[in-house]
Amino acid sequence: MNFFITLVLVFLYTSDVKAKCRFRGECIEIAGHAKPCPVDIEARPVVEGLSPADAEEIVDILTERCPSLVFDENGDKKPFNEILTCCEPVQIRKLSESLMLADGILGRCPTCLRNFARQICEMNCSPDQSRFVDVYTEVSGGVRYVNEIDYRLYEPFMLGAHASCAGVIIPQTGLPAINMMCGNAVVCDADAWFGFTGDTSSNPMAPVQVNFLRWPTPEDSMNAPAPQCNETAEGDLPCSCVDCAAMCPTGTEPVVPEICTVLDVHCVGFAVGITVFVITTIIFIILTLLEYRKLRKVETKTPLPADVQRFTVFFQNLFAKIGVFAANNPILIIMVTSWVSIGVLYGAFSLNITSNPIELWSSPVSRSREQLNYFNTRFGPFYRAAQVFLQFKGLEPFEVDNVTYGSAFRIEAIHELIKLEDEIYKIGKDDGGVSLEQVCYAPNRPRGGEQRLDQCVSMSVSVYFGQDRDNINENTYLDQIQNCLNNHYALNCLASWGGGSEPEITFGGFEGNNILSADTLLINFPITNFMLEEDLRPVLEWEQKFIDLLHDYRDNWKSDFVEVAFGTERSIEDEIRRVSVAEILPISISYIIMFIYVIIALGNVRHCKTWLLDSKIVVAAGSIVVVLLSIGCALGLMGYTGITTTLLAINVIPFFILSVGIDNVFLMVNTLHDIQNDLKSYDDYNENFSFSKKRSFVFEKMMSAVGPSIFVSSVTQITCFGIGSITNFPAVQTFAVFASFSLTFLFVFQITTVVAILSLDYKRVSQNRPDLFCCIRKKILNDDDPLNSETPYKSITKRLMKPYSKFLLNWKTKIIVAILFMLLVSTSVVLIPQVEIGLDQEMSLPTDSYVYSYLVAVSKLLRLGPPVYFVLKAGLDFSNTNHQNVICGGQLCYDDSLFTQVFLASQHSSITRISKSSNSWLDDFIDWTSLSGACCKYNTTDNGFCPSTDNSPECAFCTIGRDEWANGLRPSSEAFKRYIPFFLRDEPTPTCNKGGLASYANAVNYLLDSEGHATVRDTNFMAYHTSVSTSSDYIEAVKYGYEISDSITAAIKKRTGLDVEVFPYSIFYVYYEQYLTIWGDTFAALGYCLIGALVINLLASGFNFLTTFAVIFTAILVVINMMGVMYIWNIPLNAVSCVNLVVSIGIAVEFCSHIAYAFDSSTRPADERVQDALQKIGSTVITGITFTNIPIIVLAFSYTQVIEVFFFRMFFTLIILGFLHGMVFFPVLLSYLNNLRNK
């Protein structure tokens, strides 16, 4: 019964009670706004009292703007006299004009625009106005007018209209368009969106206060349907994917492949590691069983001495002759060395030392470097950044109207920022130096025009207050900030330079999207960049004064509640230069310790009383001088050849060169000592030899014994570094070239000059003259024990070699050693895939550096990453609609267009690292040309450009021809070419917010013909990366940047048949692109190096495959274990660690090659040769290579992580692994292989 009564009442209400008008016409103008007249009448025909021409005009406007009033429910157009409205023609005209701004904001999606226009049309003109509108009137000057309206909107319409517009974006900013229409609302929901359009207090364009009421019932509210964005009205074009997610193609989500893991390690690494361990262990067990079976057999014949390879004999004879000549002519050799060194060292004065990060870490021929150069030549170098982070840890968050604000929103924080900002503006003013307006980035400044500070781009929260920055209203400042957070391009948020301050680089230190919780304010000054050094000098001067000011602020006059971090473009390079000099101290200390050790350890001192006779202080000092001369000559040669190097290389290379050089000196000295003590065992020695012949004999034997092994190890290392120099990393190239040159000079000097020094020392020792005091001569070496004064002396390490070799080469010990080392290498194989790649910038700087604090602030506090430009090379005809469609993102653009693909990538920012969709000059230009009577103006006298704000008589609105395609959606080809220069010169205004001067003046290159028609060439489209803080973040950003660009390039080829390249460019790409191929490059470099070492060892050993295999296999194990330790010790893979892995091959060969040569040249029976080699050379490996590098521990106390991680950790690991493999595993492997050959 109740239900029936309700139906009757509704029927009576809707059929017998006619709705009336609540307001109509205009009564009075107050504060520049026309106020409507209150009425209580029925709706009248809209054409009443109009001439036929005016009637036609008004109906046309209604047809375009308010079709629901013109067409009946069947879709038929009503006769003019049946079109009833509650508005007069003047109101209809103003309604249409007011919607022009909405056209520019929401017009990209016709469905959205129609929904928005529908509620305006219904409120102002609907014949049913009284059903959902209530008015409140006031009186002024005796005239009653409507000053406030309650407008009831049916909830489904309100939510549906908002949903249809929520996805529409502004191409200039990539932000939701409705953000421009939400005022200071914290959340731009339907209530905030509609509420702002009628709020006279926050929307200066609202003539009357309209209170939008979300209403639950349809009968007493405006209940028109609200189509969604993927629904298209007849005659309209569909919304694009960019503006309507429901229109986007499916299956565009990037797929991240799952990584297979077993016990938290990579499946492949685990499988390979287990396989390696099983196979190698089985092999060594079989070899052990064969050896055990051989040992159980009773030997019936004596083993024969092994023959020396003919190729080895050749090298022995060659180096024997060199040794004899150098020993017999020491003064001549030293003089020639001095002359050569002085001549080559002179080139060091021309040496180019760089600390430029790009020159250090980016190859000139790399893809990203070439693209950087391309971008710079087409669009100018990317602007420099001067940036300040003010973190307010001493201020507490606070709550206003149930909204919690972070400490950055406190008024004290904002005053602190403005105080500092004012001082920055004063830089150069008092002392007549370079000021900000002379170096700032000012895109709207006419070329050659006056330099004014208000033209400079700056981004900080003070921009949001405009002219009131020095007089902030503490009661309303939060509303103003919130308004600008929603739309930093709002009229009251624009800076004097024409743009707004991006919220994500205005505030920092917040989690997720909760910007209101920020505890950090930023100051950003983009600074003009130049390619020529002389043009850059004023910029560098201003940046230095900026840094000085911020140091003074931090140390002397900042408030206690703030922590500051700051940096400029020059900061990192300056700090690298400063730190490189500072690192000299710990490195020098380690060198001094190394020198002291060499001086003490080189001599075979028997007693304290004979210390000066047995010591080799002069030899040690001379050998060190030879090493330093080798390094100096390498620097000189690099100076002559124009090869650039770094202070880092100059600091570190001597470590490696000294370890190699001193090792060879130890080898020479110990071999001389052994020969001298065992002269009678040589068949060709005669005790009646004169001193000269005896010296020649001794040095001949010494060089024939050590020369070939020095040659093998030196040439192997030179080869390794030579191959390392072909890498794509400039820092590694210069490091490798420097090392190659140094090792080459060192090898030559050691087989000549060091031999000459040893010859002079040999003469001193033969005459019993003390070291350093050569003028004194003793007849007896030991006065207390003259009979035993000539007794041969063996060092402790030398004496330990005999029992050690017997223990090590026992078959039980060998199998344990083999299994343990195979377990070690298998574990390393498992761990290698987990090694991180990259090089965080902070590692290059000490933790007390202001730049270190700045980089930490950038990574932890900044919530928006660097801009990324998608550069489109010339080749497309932009006046062709098909070519437009492969680029634009608006209506009828292809779903794989450039703009659409970047937009889709931004929807998956956690994977693609694209934070916001790119801007699009093409979309904005199309919109600009469609805003008839609002934007484009020309000079009627010369047909030139007029700004849209110029109201002079000679400036008139353009008549822009439309293309026949898609009912005139785009400008015609002729219009495109004529008006694109106008668009790029037009400033954004309240009535024409699409002007392209501020956003696109530097983004589009075009050529003008004689008629003033433009042909667009290279262009770019700017998006933003997400916040990137770690190397992996940067690498992922680069990876997906190139993937997106490649996909766009393929789409252009598919749609147009043209090979037009699109590439991504961001300031960090030149540093991180190398990591996309770092694994392949690293293994290639190591492979080439190992091949080089293999060839050299084969040649030098006379194609002795046994020793060559043993050396190379051991070197491979060292490299694999080095990479395993890299994971354990948190050493990432990058250019520096890559070159250290190359070095590890050289060091591994150094540890093994001397033992291998001693084995190869041994004349002992085959089964004793490994023991013989170990006893001869083992002590030299310990004292000459291992102990010499112990001072490297000092680098653990370095100022920077780069030195501590990549040189202390890696070199220390390398020495330990080299020693263990060279002195433990290599003899065992050699023994197994020797037994296999002689079974």
UniProtKB/TrEMBL annotation:
Q: Which residues cross the membrane?
A: 268-290, 331-349, 584-605, 617-640, 646-667, 702-724, 736-760, 815-832, 852-872, 1078-1099, 1106-1129, 1141-1159, 1180-1200, 1206-1233
In the UniProt record, the signal sequence range is 1-19
Q: Which PROSITE patterns does the record cross-reference, listed alphabetically? A: SSD
What GO MF terms are annotated? cholesterol binding
- Where in this chain does the record put each SSD domain? 583-760
Q: Where in the cell is it found?
A: Membrane
Quote the catalytic activity from the record.
cholesterol(in) = cholesterol(out)
The source's superkingdom equals Eukaryota
Tell me a GO cellular component: plasma membrane
Q: Which InterPro entries match?
A: HMGCR/SNAP/NPC1-like_SSD, NPC1_MLD, NPC1_N, SSD
- What's the chief localization of this chain? membrane
| One Pfam family hit | NPC1_MLD
Q: How does it sit in the membrane?
A: Multi-pass membrane protein
User: Which UniProt keywords are present, listed alphabetically?
Assistant: Disulfide bond, Glycoprotein, Membrane, Signal, Transmembrane, Transmembrane helix, Transport
Q: Name one GO biological process term.
A: sterol transport
Which family does this protein fall into?
Belongs to the patched family.
Q: What is this protein called?
A: SSD domain-containing protein
What organism does the record attribute this protein to?
Answer: Bombyx mori
Question: Taxonomic classification, please?
Answer: Eukaryota, Metazoa, Ecdysozoa, Arthropoda, Hexapoda
